[in-house]
Design goal:
With 250 residues, this protein is mainly alpha-helical. 59% of the residues lie in helices and 4% in strands. The chain is globular, with a radius of gyration of 17 Å.
Amino acid sequence: MSSDVALANLVVVLADNKYFLGRRVSEWSIAAPTLEASVACAAITQEELGHTRPLYSFIEQLDVPNAPAPLEREDDRDRMYCLSCLREQFPSWAHAMVALFLVDAALTLMLEGLTQGDNAVLRRRAARLVADEPVHQMFAASRIRELGAGTSAELLRRAVDQMLPELLCWFGPPGEPGVADLRAAGFVVLDNDGLRQAFLERVAPPLCDAGVELGVEWSAEHECWEYPELPWESWNSLERRLEATTGAAT
């Protein structure tokens, strides 16, 4: 796989996930439990959907045959390169906030790698997108703390159980060729397992502080986060998603 093809694959995955995350969060801009949360969801929706434009337009600048067209509607393409947890409406406010917290953290981690790449255009665009993300993360983390301390604590746990395995798989199995190509081209700093560890470093402590039992724990002996075997048998490496709902990481 050429570096341009690998880069185009990564950027379309980032763009599609941002598109669907924005769409799913938008459905809570009129259904959130408070007016403040509704306003925040509307603002986050606008930013996430706005982030897709510089990503999709960058793909058009690459010399890649049959590149996926930008999404403007959910059915614009037969193939969507997004997580399964974003393909349907969230069944609860807890699911919406867990998805925002986990998915945004994963996307931001990959965008941060692009800010260090050799492509100046993509480096500038990625930096602008990364600058918006701390506010999204702070909002989602605050809502997760509220959920963990209230009557929705069990719903919060179930939402994390449903989504976390897919997010851990999203960084790909060890030694995945596409990530190796991106690392060789200077667009990704960490390998698949390194990305997973960096992701857990961001999301595990806040979730544990909210009282969620993850089945993921820090090993002082090995100096890494340890987690159960991931459901690679259900992993769709092309569309970057799990084919079906799997068991929780507990």
